[in-house]
Amino acid sequence: MKSSLKKSLYVGLAAASVFGAAGLASTTASAKSYAYVTKALYFNTAPESRNVVPTGSNALYSKVGTSKGARVVASKTTMARLGNSNRSNDYFRAYSIVSTNRGSVYYKVVSFDGHYRGWIYGGKDKTKFGGGIASTNTTSSAALPSTTTGYTLTNPSKWTLWNNPKYTQYKASKVTGFSNTDTFTITGAETKTREGWVYYQVKDDQNPSITGWVYNLGVQAPQGNSVKISYVDKDTGKEVGTGSVPFDKSATYTNVTTTSNLNSIVNGVPSGYVPYDNNNGGSASLANKDNAAVAKNGDTLVYYVKAAATDTTKAIKVVLVDKDGNAINLKSNDQAALDAAGAKAAFQVKAGDTISAQDVQNILADANLTDLISNSGSSYRFASASNTPTTTNDNGATITVRATYNLIAY
């Protein structure tokens, strides 16, 4: 499902009709003061390789931005907001490309939800995205559950099957042709980059030609092979919700503290609550980690939560630097994962409190960036972070913090 973004885009001359479809001016007497299109080009790459995010450096226009009659569809401020969004439906797909007499490249793009459509400046090099847009990966690989067979749908009207994880591709659509009582085999797993939600790729056991993607809470393992999760507000001692972790019916126990099981538990935290302690991938919120490591069928494990504060930061933006203070440039998918982790409600702090070094480390761990390979190919490992105080004026604000990494290898 997940396509790898290529460093270059192959473009060639397209039919002259593209000029008319783009609504762009050709060479006229007025071209002395306005840019005009000299070449209409086309993509020769898979649509999935043309998923992009706005950089915020350029606005979206109804025509090429410097051509006569062009009007603003979305300002630079709006495009920057969409580029930093934590919603997958705010991604864009590039589907047309032209170059102008001034040597500029423009792309026609549309947001995944179809709300925004127009032309945006893409730099001077037609072989790669630049200017107002950048390549992105909308998902990343996730771990498969320990049990992969015999799954059933939990709530098809709420969590149904999609041909791609919802809003991770333009025009992702629902899958039909299966029965709500069918059983399914899990064949793949992906994490939505922005939301951090895990989706499973499943194959219908009764209709093997039918495959799709479903939110991980939308399927359950064969009944009877599960551990109940009791979400308890630690401050009040009251249970505020329940969940479950399935495991293979042939196994005598399961380890609930594995990454995939913990992700399922954290994703299942009831609305209005966050994990009580985010340390160690959220396992610090388990009341008894020893029991969780050898949980048996029918066991109940307490997972502590707390009410989500309303006067908190909006997001914590982590900037990565080396020991000399030089910025580390991340690959686009790693940067997207880091931004998504920093925007999660679980990691926000109350305005006026301190963002601790441990908070920063938890965000990095959630984004799987304790160790990383930079965009230039160098290997780094997390070294340290500092405490960053906030003020009461930071309610709803994005706070920038720094994390220092040691260079391991060039």
Automatic annotation (TrEMBL):
What's the protein here called? S-layer protein
Lineage summary: Bacteria, Bacillati, Bacillota, Bacilli, Lactobacillales
Q: Where is the signal peptide?
A: 1-31
Identify the species of origin: Secundilactobacillus angelensis
The alphabetical list of record keywords is:
Signal
**Which superkingdom, per the lineage?**
Bacteria
